Every structure is written in C-alpha cells, then in structure tokens.
Amino acid sequence: MRTGIWTFCDDNELPRGENISKELINAIHGSRTSLVIFSKDYASSSWCLDELVQILHCKSTMNHIFIPIFYHVNPSDMRKQTGTFAETFDRLEGRFQEDMERVQRWRAAFTEAADCSGFDLQSDANGFEARFIEKIVEQVLYKLNPICLDVVEHPVGIDFHVEEMKTLLQLGTSTTTKLLIMGMYGMGGIGKTTLAKAVYNNICNGFEGSSCLLNVREVSEKSNGLIQLQEQLLFDILKVKILSIGNVDKGISLIKQRLHRKSVLIVLDDVDQLDQIYALATDGEWFFGPGSRVIITTRDEHLLVKLGVNYSYKVEKMNHSDSLQLFSWHAFNMPHPEDDFWEISIAAVDYAGGLPLALEVLGSDLRGRSITKWKTTLEKFRKSPDAQIQEILGISFKSLDHTTREVFLDIACFFIGVNIEYVFKILEECGFFPDIAINILVQKSLVKIDNTNLSMHDLIRDMGREIVRQESRHPGMRSRLWSHEDVLKVLKNHMGSEVVEGLSLNLPIHDQDQVISLESEAFANMKNLRLLQIKGVKNLKLQGCIEHLSKELRWICWHSCPLRFLPPRLHLENLVVLDMQYSKIKQVWTLENNVLSKLKVLNLSFCEDLTKSPNFLQVPNLEELILEGCYKLVDIQGFENLAFTKVVSLEGCLEQEEEIDFVKSLLELQWPFMIERRQIYLYGDEIPNWFSHKRTGSSISFHIPSLSDQDRVIKGLVFGVVCRNKDSLQAWHGEISVVFHNKTKGHRQVIHRLFYYKPIGSLNHLVLLQVGLGGGSKIPYGQEMTNGEEIEVSFEFECSQALEYVGVKECGIHLIIQREEEAGSMVMYSEKKKKMMEDDLMQDTPVTKLTRHRPHNWPKVWKYDGIVPFVSYIERNTSTFALLHSLG
C-alpha cells in the first residue's frame, strides 16, 4: 500500500459466505497482475489450484501479468511434480477419481507456472525475506508502471497516426501471436521518432517486456556503441544488469537466448545501416518470441525493402491546419495566432512546409517578438537556414557518396520542377549516373518525383544551397551560383573561377525589364562550367563574343538571348541541351565541319527572327527538335537526317498545306520503324481518312482482319481521339485513359494515359497515340492477336469534372501492318545510317534543303505536348510536338 498499489488476498478481502469462486474470478479479471506464492502445501488446496488455472488462462488471453514466487520450494520439483508434490498429486488423483480431467489441468498449470520467470527466495535473496519482498515490489512497480517516454509538449495531429499504426500492428487480432515488423520512414525532422514514442507508450503494457532504443545511428557510431545498445535492450526487458557483453557477437547470442520466447515490443529509432538491426534484432531469423512487435524508424526507405519488413509507413508532412496549430502553441502558447499575427503566422507556416521540427524552432524563436522582428527573422531564415534545422536535415546528405551528393546539389540549385528525363540527359553526360543517384535520393526522402517532375521540400532545398554557400565567403569561389544577386555580382566584377560548375541567372518578374550590361569575358575564368541558365533577362546588353564559354558545358538554357548567331569558335562538343527560346537568333551556328555528337535536345521555340535551321547532318544523335513559333523559318537543311529524332515540333512554322507537304516529306523517310510509344497532338476536327476504323463517340469496336499474306504481321496500333472543347472560356488539363479490351480473350487493360491540355479559347484537338506490339507493349496478348478477335477501345477522362469542359467527338484505330523482312531491313538501315552520317558530312555530301515562303503574320500556335510537366508548359508557353512516320 505504501507504493500506491491496491492489493487483496483471497483469504482476507473476500467476505465469508459469498460465492468465493465467482468473486475471485472477477477479482482476477479486474487485476493487471497476479502474484502466486508457491509453498510446500500449495498443491494440497484444490481451491488454490483452480485459482492458478484461471490466472494462467488470463495470462494467455488477456496479457495478464503473472509473477510466481517460489517460497522454500524448488521450481524443478513443481515442473516435474516430484518430491512432496508427487505425494500431493497422488492424493488428489485418489480424491478426484471421477474428475481426472480437472487433475490434469492442475498438473499442466503447475508445470507452466514453474517455467515462468519469477522469484526464488533462495537464489534471489539468499533466504533473506525482507530483501526478497523489496525485489518483488520493485518488479511489480515496473510491470504496473512502465516508464513512459516523453513525447512532445504539444502532440498536435499525432493521435490519428497512432491509430493508423496500431491498426497496421494488428494488435488484438488473430495475428496477435505472430511476430510482426513495422518500418517507418520519412525525411529528417518530419516526426518519425515522436510518432514511434507515442505508439510505444500506447501499447507497451500489452507485452512481457519492452525497449525503445533512441538514436541508434548516433549511438552506434561511438566506441562500443552497438554493445551499449545490446546491454540496454537486455536490461529494459529482463530488468537484470548484464555483466559486460564484450563483443557484438556475444550480445547477439545473449539476446537470442534470453528473448526468443518472450512477447516483446522493440523500437529501433533512426537506423541507417543494416548492421545495426543485425546486432539488435535479427541475423536472418528474428530474435524475439511470438506476438512480438518491432518498430524501426529510418530516413532510408530502401533499407526497409532490403530488410523485408511486414509493413512500411511513410510519415508525411503535417497539413496546413495542424501546422498552424502546432506553430501557434510554440509562438503564442495557444492553438491559434494572436489577432494581429494571422497573416505573418501563415507566412511562417508556409515557410516551414509542414515540417514539425521547423514549426517548433520557428515558433519558439519568434515568441514574444514584434511583427517587424518577425519579418526580418523570416527573411533571415530564407537566406540562411536555422542551424538546428540545418544540422538535422544535413544528416541524410552526409550519408551520401560523392557522386550522389553532386546530383543532389545540382537538383537543389538548378533542376527543381524540371522533367526527370530531361535532367537524366544532362547529368548522364556529366558522369554522375543520375538514375542510380536520384533513386537513392528518393529513398532517403531528399527528392520526390511528382508526375515525372523533380521536386524537393523547400527546407531540404535550402539545406543543399546552404552547403554550397558554406564552400566560400566569396560567391565566385563556390561550385554553384543560383541567387541573381550573387550571379550579377560575380559577372559584373569578373569574379568567376574554375570552381564554378553551374550558374543560373533568373531575375524576379518585377526586375525582368531592367537593362543588364555584361561583358562576355566575365565567363573566361569559369573553365569547368557545366550548367548555364539565363532566364527572365529581357534586356541584356552583352559586350564581346561568348567564345570564352567553357568547353565543359552540357546545358545551355539561355532564353531571350540577344545574339544573332552563335560564334563559330564556340566549343559545343560536349553540349547535350541547347535551349534558346524567345531569342534574337537568326541562325544557330555557322559550323561547317563540326559534328555535335552529344547534342540531344535543341529548343528554338519562338525565335521569331530565325530564318535558317541548323544543318541537321551535324547533330546525328538529336532526339528532340522544337521549332514552335519560328514563323520566319524558310530554310531547313538536312531534314532527311531527322529520321532518328523522336520529337519534332513545328507548330506555327507553316501554313496548313505546307505543313502537310513537309510532314509527308518527313514521313517518307525511313524512320526506325517501331518506337515503343509516340504521342501526337494536333488541331483537328476529325480522325484522318487513312485510319482503318473510326466512329463517332468515345469508344470503337472492330475485328482483327485476316492477313492473306502469311509474311504480313501487325506491328503496332495507332489510336486517335478528337477532343471537343465545350467551354472556350475555361482552361483544363488532365489525363485520358486509353482502355484496350480484347472481348474474345476476356482481357481489359488501361494501356496508356494521355496528358491533355485545353487552354482558354482553344480549338478542337486531335490526339494520336502509336503503340508498338514488341516485348515492352502494354497491350494484353498484343503479339498473339488472331483473325476474327473482337477488340473494343475506349477513351475515358480520369476526372469526371473534365466532362464539363471537354468531350470526345470521334475516335478511331489504325493497324500498322508490315512484312517481317521490312522491319528487319529498317532496323539495319537505322544502324548503318547513324554510322554513316559523320562520313557523309566530311565528304561534302549534298544537303537536302526545304525552302518555303509564307506570310509573316502567321499566328503562333501553342499546344500542350504531354511530355513536359503542365506547370513548365504554362510557365514558358511552349510545347513539344512529335510527328509520326507513315502509318499505312
């Protein structure tokens, strides 16, 4: 009673004359712990034996805590029913001859009780009863009042996630007796540890033992850190001080020996290496008994995949409402901002981006300050992140290898919001293996991919940029420059150096019309410059020739460039992407014999003074050519070498009749026959006449035709849909699912999702999709389609709201049929043609030209192409447009 624990004994607390058995059962069920004192005469009482059976039943079904106390008895005699217990049970069998089943239950209960961990007067206290009682009280106190972990002062939004976790942990279900491993992952500061501790506090009472090992990564880095963690794990559960383990392998053996039968709850927090888990929880087989639960928190999702956990739970950022509440508790000590602070509080919450760590740090730092001080503090945070936040977020960066760090910093400084395939092309030529690096960054929650677009939490971005900023006090001695103030300072004062690898000058909207004067020699010292971007500079006065640009350039993105042409001595041999939208350029280059073998993307959209195209013989590996809105373009050189270009955009360059003629000229080229997938977006009101099947409405059915010539096969399908715009005043974008249904074989599948963009006031669109039937095709049993099979194709908008603005007017399908040997010859042609290009160039091969005359007032045509992200499209008002080769 001194310790605050209410107790009763069956011989004192239950009044005489009542139904003792019923009252006792209720008392046992209402208790959390039973202490059973086994003496020499215990088994002589049938009443005591019935109590024992009931207590052990509660132990197995209700997580009831059972503590046996062996008072002057040997647990071995109890287990085997030998010694005095043998005589006692013999008498019981004689006494209960007609109820031997009851005696067998007593024997089984006696054996089970002897196997349970408890207290032995001789071995635990050397016969001293006072010390014996103290040890028992200590254990009961621990069992009844396990130490709860401190979670957070203001647990905003945690309860919902705790309940989700409890559901996944399957407590109180048929799988309760199974061992289950749960992984939690997310970026640093997102609240993984807080959530894990809250779950631990909520469920730890239901286990025979529990241990929460915090900061596993940090502790394991210390000398003998893993051994310390092993010792803590054993002590937390056994409550026995383990003598020095000595080495990790011995610790593994001890954990397996002592805990393999126990139902335990283990939390391993902030794990970043499998070795840490192998030392504490598994060596292929988990160390703990049935019913155990192991919760692992980590920043690395892939670690959980390699470990093979039962469930992975991603801890997401807080929503805006919870973020504002948590911030307000720390800033104002109440769940909402003070009246005059609402607007600036929302700005602070937006900066934190749903990261609990940032909300707590910001709120605490701003508490009690004036609005003016709030504004200056927020501005300081935006330019230089808080050290505490920086330290927590920087842990993930420090775990990366050198190449992955470089990719991370490039993305943080230059490529947020950019299509991932576009970035792959650039960074691949930098020798960075971007596919592997970006995959690692995604797994470590440092980068996200949204609709094929690279994105990053603002604080992660700021952390990366701060790492670059710390390289030097002088901007010209840093590896990457992105702040327009720093860039202008470096360029105007010729402060650049060989350290600079990337530079982006992007003026704010309100500054884009100001005149910027620069000298081309400002780039002369940046001999290792790989990435160059100049955007939002509409009035750039450039003095001198830009021949000083680095030979290492892989990416030039220079919008509104004032140059009329690129100088002939400019080194572009390593260039992968040349993007010069809205520039004054008349001719891209006058290179006569140079081959730009690495150039893959050439974007000259809306270069309204461009009259002459580059000679495409000089760019044998060009994959994307975008000439949208170049309405003065009349001279296209070497167009027959566009056979290998997957994307060609000529919208707004030609009148409709000229467009048809030019497209026919392109389509007559022997393109590589079957590109796996190709999309085409056009203005149009009807399916082309060359389609083999077309129909009004959003679905069409047809039968596979008989092919009279056995050498002729179906190589691909072309799907067409005319989208009718209902509301010219409403813009809309979304996806159209192409559903392929082989009714004969009973297979139905969405084979593709077309991105569709309807700008305000736009005309109807014709959307074409070409799909090959090769090994990578998504068409079910596409290569096995046979004569007479019924096929249905339908086009369905993903969002029902879309039907208010757009509808399907007409759809169609066309079969691409070809002889087997023709396909092979085209592939061979493709390989040979590619190899011969450079030889042709050096041998003065005549260049095919296409010259056209057209009105100069031809309107610009802007269409979304489904390749770049919608946001990027809207920002730059341009598109990428693919032209399809001859289909029938």
TrEMBL record:
Residues 1-144 form the TIR domain. It holds the Pfam family NB-ARC. Signal peptide: none annotated. GO terms for molecular function: ADP binding. GO terms for biological process: defense response; signal transduction. Keywords: Leucine-rich repeat, Repeat. The keyword Repeat applies. This is TIR domain-containing protein. It comes from Carya illinoinensis (Pecan).
